[in-house]
Amino acid sequence: MNRRRLIATLATGAACTRLPSVFGAEPPPEPYQRANTDWLAKCRYGVGLHWTAQTVPMKGQPLPFQKAVEAFDVRRLVRSLAYAGTDYLLFTAAHALQMLPAPHPVLDKLLPGRTCTRDLIAELADALAASGMPLMVYYNHSCNQKQDPLWEQAVGYHGRDKTAFAQNLMDIVGWMGERYKDKIKAWWFDSPYSLDPRGPHNSVSTDMAGFQFPWERFTVAAKTGFPARLVTYNPGVAETFLYTTHQDYWSGELVNLKAPARSRYLENGLQWFGWTCLEDRGWVHHRLDTEIPRPLYTDEAMANYVRACNSHQAPMTFNVGIYQDGTLAPASVEQLHRLCMTGL
Known about the structure:
By secondary structure, the protein is an alpha/beta fold. It has a single domain, classed as TIM Barrel (Alpha-Beta Barrel). It contains eleven helices and seven strands. A seven-stranded parallel sheet has the order 5-4-3-2-1-7-6. Strand 6, helix 10 and strand 7 form a beta-alpha-beta unit. Helix 8 packs parallel to helix 9. The chain starts with a helix and ends with a helix. The N terminus is likely disordered.
């Protein structure tokens, strides 16, 4: 892939799109105009990382989250990604626990102690950009079956006024959008099924009292600072349900390499995108004193799957195991390097 052409496509998309209302204060006009996904369609494969507050080292006790963020070696990570032939990085901002590897005044106000002084997101984005790799960001609202009960109370998940709860979430992503602007090229939003019971899965664990989560306004908030930013909402493994048409590409969570893309776009109109675990189907390396498992797939299976997807302008993402110090699973990096060397 021509990385210079990729960056030029991104810049063009940003210049041709109108800036949305700040933090989702007003709904967007109908019908929704999907953002240009050409830059994503040009990508071959990328790496996803679930580096979170629950990530542990290979040996010994984990550092407190803030200290782990301070010690994270960004340059080493980017070198590993470049060696692996990665076209983009999908990095986790928050997962089961609402703890961000960056400053965030909205979180500080809602629940102090959940943010960091170092802005790992910005540093990653800058280092990746220098190597021609866009940054995509995974975000989970962390209101999932009391995985983070203190946060659920603080953000208002169990409050009577669900409008205030929704606004808190929009303020969180809106502030990040305004801070990072085009450093974040796309959002990957998880667990909408904990906020909205309409989809194929329902893990809502509060009384919604008939409240309909405002996905359209949330999309506006998510595009704050960079209207060309892509947005997707994950309805579950291999599901194509749309919580809203106001999104730009398919989340594409997969559990194997059995169903490659058959066209660039799904029947629901979204750009195809895939994401599966390369070695650890638990997504996060959280078991103390253990090594990340070896890859699940043969080199041939990997290459055949990615080629099949790429023939339809569909990028594939591999979630790679990562230790708390930011070191990637060596066997996975080597396999991705071999994949790159096949001449995709």
